[in-house]
């Protein structure tokens, strides 16, 4: 089973994470940021991965370090869990509608970290979650996972719907990209290597 555990402890956060790419049976998220918990659960459920995430962060300041550091740790764990990347489809994309909103994500497990992000949120915070952290989370995740990630809110009005649509879209794109295809021999690359 492809899995990895990762821990990170700084003056700002203490994080314990385990991701299980082939066993989605357990998803347990506790970050102290309710809306972020909701988004991470949506990401894991739609990504069909098991995810255990516990964060003790400096929420007396704000939610920035908690959210960004969770992206760092998740990205590193995903990279480790994928191992040599043999047999994975590598690419994935998904459109997700949520009522009036349409979100989109595309992933290339390329070894070349990059984020292209298009999304504007009129509401500045949802509970104790600052909506500007959506991009920060995906940047931290993409760069530490070593993936190319494109995320777009194509249209919508409700901030909750916009953010949830893209978290679900990224999860669904990831599920496709990490899937093992028995017809792929070695890695899905003309170079013969995905770093």
Q: What report would you give on this structure?
A:
The protein is an alpha+beta fold. Helix content is 34%, strand content 31%. It has four helices and ten strands. It has a four-stranded mixed β-sheet with strand order 1-2-4-3, with helices on one face. A four-stranded mixed β-sheet has the order 5-6-10-7.
Question: What is the gist of this entry?
Answer:
With 195 residues, this protein is α+β, with helices and mostly antiparallel strands. The chain is built from four helices and ten strands.
Reported for the largest beta sheet, the result is:
4 strands, mixed
Sequence of secondary-structure elements: EEEHEHEEEEEHEH
- End-to-end distance: 20 Å
Morphology call: globular
Proportion of strand residues: 25-35%
Unreliable runs, pLDDT <50, ≥5 residues? none
Structural class: alpha+beta
Please bin the fraction of helical residues.
Answer: 25-40%
Which labels suit this protein?
195 residues; 4 helices; histidine biosynthesis; IGPD_sf; imidazoleglycerol-phosphate dehydratase activity
Tell me the layout of helices and strands.
Layout: E1 3-9, E2 13-20, E3 27-30, H1 34-47, E4 50-57, H2 64-82, E5 91-98, E6 101-108, E7 114-118, E8 125-126, E9 129-130, H3 133-145, E10 148-155, H4 159-178
Parallel strand pairs: 3-4, 7-10
Antiparallel strand pairs: 1-2, 2-4, 5-6, 6-10, 8-9
Helix pairs in contact: 1-4, 2-3
């Amino acid at each position: 089973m492809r899995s990895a555990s990762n821990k990170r402890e700084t003056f700002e956060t203490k994080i314990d994470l385990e991701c299980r790419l082939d066993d989605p049976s357990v998803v347990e998220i506790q970050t102290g940021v309710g809306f972020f918990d909701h988004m991470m659960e949506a990401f894991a459920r739609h990504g069909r991965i098991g995810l255990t995430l516990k964060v003790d962060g400096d929420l007396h300041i704000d939610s920035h370090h908690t959210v960004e550091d969770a992206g760092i740790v998740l990205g590193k764990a995903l990279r480790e869990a994928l191992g040599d990347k043999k047999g994975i489809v590598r690419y994935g994309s998904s459109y997700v509608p949520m009522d009036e909103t349409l979100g989109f994500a595309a992933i290339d497990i390329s070894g070349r970290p990059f984020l292209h992000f298009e999304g504007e949120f009129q509401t500045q915070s949802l509970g104790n979650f600052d909506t500007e952290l959506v991009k920060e989370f995906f940047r931290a995740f993409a760069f530490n996972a070593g993936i190319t990630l494109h995320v777009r809110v194509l249209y919508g009005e409700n901030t909750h719907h916009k953010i949830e649509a893209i978290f679900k879209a990224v999860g669904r794109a990831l599920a496709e990209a990490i899937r093992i295809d028995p017809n792929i021999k070695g890695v899905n690359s003309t170079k013969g290597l995905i770093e």
